[in-house]
Design brief:
The protein is an alpha/beta fold and 298 residues long. It has one domain: TIM Barrel (Alpha-Beta Barrel), CATH 3.20.20.100. It has helices at 42-54, 70-79, 108-122, 146-157, 171-178, 198-206, 222-235, 239-250, 263-271, 279-286, 288-297, and strands at residues 10-12, 19-21, 25-26, 59-61, 87-92, 94-96, 102-104, 127-133, 161-167, 183-187, 210-211. α1 crosses α2, α1 (42-54) runs parallel beside α9 (263-271) and α7 packs across α8. The protein is globular, with a radius of gyration of 18 Å.
Length: 298
């Protein structure tokens, strides 16, 4: 059996009984290429999930539009009946076209059907957390989310959803959601090189709201990658481990969900929680975002 390791401490979602290790697991890569169809190695997908849980991971992020349906079915196969304390978070608001495209699915019945699909394919009676995913592929947009979020709030009142979050949103949209129902987590694009949400993370920390970065490992320029390479060499780690460790040390309410379809890569990701970055290294890494802006201007 895999030995439990340090996973960056724990975080408790505000006003809930849900406490998760800060290093979790994102299940998107369990599906096939382009997040479509079955994985190339179904047995490895099951092993990844089981090893993650054996190592102490108790937060799995998924969606029924991964595959579609495939990822949730693998989670059920690997982990059901679920261990006490395992928190499964899903997202709704998108769908998949027959051509593998990503589509919006924010109409009332689409949202209801999406929650029901998640419950059925995961083998659950209620979801721990459902995030409303809005915006576009390149970032948030400013449309109102009142109508779709109200639908999820109704499902929460019916007991199908315990808690709600938002994904790919602006501050205004977050405020709009909070007027309808309590928000326990925000899932936005953020990493060491892309830090538009720096101020938002601080605001959320004051409210004990989890900030869950998606795309935590990628989009780095050559100059930014070189800085990560130097830090990794000093720590005898990989650049991606350094990027994850920086996120964990960035703020106490940051909760990570790096994904992989490989047991080897999973182990590397989890070990990132054990890295300690000194003040000088953090200061150097903090300048990565500035270097990306400078490179874009030059």
């Amino acid at each position: 059996m895999t030995k439990e390791i340090d996973l960056g401490g724990s975080f408790r979602f505000a006003n809930t009984s849900l406490t998760v290790k800060r290093m979790g697991y994102g299940a998107m890569q369990l599906a096939g290429p382009q997040v479509w169809g079955p994985p190339r190695d179904p047995d490895e997908a099951v092993r990844v999930l089981r090893e993650a849980v054996e190592a102490g991971v108790n937060h799995i992020d998924t969606s029924d539009f991964y595959g579609p349906h495939v990822t949730n079915q693998i989670i059920k196969q690997a982990l059901h009946p679920y261990a006490d304390g395992l928190v499964i978070v899903t997202k709704v608001g998108a769908g998949r076209g027959a051509d593998k495209s990503w589509t919006h699915a924010l109409a009332r019945q689409e949202l209801i059907d999406a929650v029901q699909d998640n419950l059925r394919n995961l083998g659950l009676e209620a979801m721990d957390v459902v995030n409303l995913r809005v915006g576009g592929n390149t970032g948030p947009s400013e449309e109102s989310i009142e109508e779709p979020f109200t639908v999820l709030a109704e499902l929460k009142q019916r007991g199908l959803v315990r808690h709600l979050g938002v994904s790919n949103v602006t501050r205004r949209q977050l405020s709009e959601a909070q007027k309808i129902s309590e928000v326990v987590c925000v899932q936005n694009f953020y990493n060491i090189a892309h830090r538009v949400d720096d101020g938002l993370i601080v605001e959320l920390a004051r409210q004990a709201i989890a900030y869950v970065p998606f795309f935590p490992l990628g989009g780095f320029s050559a100059l930014q990658s070189a800085t990560l390479d130097r830090a990794a060499s000093t720590l005898q780690a990989t650049p991606m481990q350094v990027a994850l460790a920086w996120l964990l040390q960035r703020a106490p309410n940051i909760v990570l969900i790096p994904g992989t379809s490989s047991v080897k890569h999973l182990r590397e990701n989890l070990k990132a929680a054990e890295l300690q970055l000194g003040p000088e290294m953090i200061a150097e890494l903090d300048r990565i975002a500035d270097r990306g802006r400078d490179a874009a201007v030059s």
